[in-house]
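Journal club prep — side note

Before the paper discussion, L.F. wants everyone to see what a predicted structure for a comparable chain looks like in token form. Sequence:
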Amino acid sequence: MLSWLRRFPHDVVHRKDNAGRRTSSSTTWRNRSTSFTARIIRCASSVVDATAKHDDDDDDDDCPLPSSPPFPGPAPPPPLAEEDDDRVTVVSAQAFSFRELAEAAGNFRQDKLIGEGGFGRVYKGRLPSMKSGGEQEGQRVVAVKQLDRNGRQGNSEFVVEVVMLSMLRHPNLVRLVGYCAEGEQRLLVYEYMALGSLEDHLLVPRDDRVLLPWRTRMRVAHGAARGLEYLHDRAVIYRDLKSSNILLADDYTPRLSDFGLARLLPLPSSSSSSSSSGAGRSRVMGTYGYCAPEYLRTGKLSAKSDVYSFGVLLLELITGRRAIDASRPDGEQSLVGWAASMFGDPRRLQELVDPRLVMAMQGPPASELKQAVGVAAMCLQENHALRPVMTDVVIALSFLAAAGATTTRDDHRQYHPSLESS
């Protein structure tokens, strides 16, 4: 494993808390003078080398913090590429100055705020959209995440997220537009997701939020599973799958976001399964309630850790409950613990359905509920070796997603005011 990934990230310690949130110690950001371009290409090339060669040997070359070009400056260059042993690594993230992003986000005014968490704040912004000839043709809407220097996303996580999202492209992964690493400022620019996070729609009660229909929930589950399948095929462990990290486009297409905890694993040898290859013992990082039991016990990370987290997410979609909810009675605070007792009893499966769906007479057909609960139960097996790989999960959910394919944006428009004006 590469040194910069092997050390990833030891300066931030995430611990359990009752709210199911990640907590962290304060982090000091460093800044060095070497150009961001050279560093990010070297990091990206190293990742490709590790994936292609399956080699744990490295040159101990540190990948220090990036820095944005000074402002003002020339127009941003096109995506960068570097040839190495007949391979080309493309880095597509664009470097922005802090002034550019501050202007785009309305100087980070409160009325531009669209999200907030332990990492910092997210603002809605507008950036110039340029033609190929360099002329401005309009504006594009983006989400600007300004990282809190004392928050949970530290320096190593910032670099990992820029590198990962520069190399990974999939319809179910959020797209990184660019970044800023000017002085002590750390900002990330993403495509704007009109409907916010899955958590907002599923777990945060609000009068202006539509009740997610069953079929839409299964489409979201299938899309999230496809995103994980894509990552695992490229030996990337997401490590922080949860409802707040799944963003929804205006047609409810899910996209995985927040790749600060993602980790690259060496590809397995021909005699082993990709799902069983581990990364060795490491400090446990993630969100309590979603972490696999063997990861909590041993610190050993594998693709099956993500599979377990997906099982928790699928249970949230079925039940409308949080993974950990301290406000519920004893025996029901842990979603997995509460639901596990019903997995083997078909007569009790209806008890798992979100009561809001039942009250709205939108509960799932018995056959679809049985299939969805069955997939969740397989993903939540205590023995990680018995859990399916994400490819099997995608196949198992494909029928439920296809059944919900007729649920479109128009079906939600009457309930969601933001869609009326879009």
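L.F.'s comment for the group: Residues 193-422 form a domain with the Transferase(Phosphotransferase); domain 1 fold (CATH 1.10.510.10). Keep this in mind when we get to the figures.
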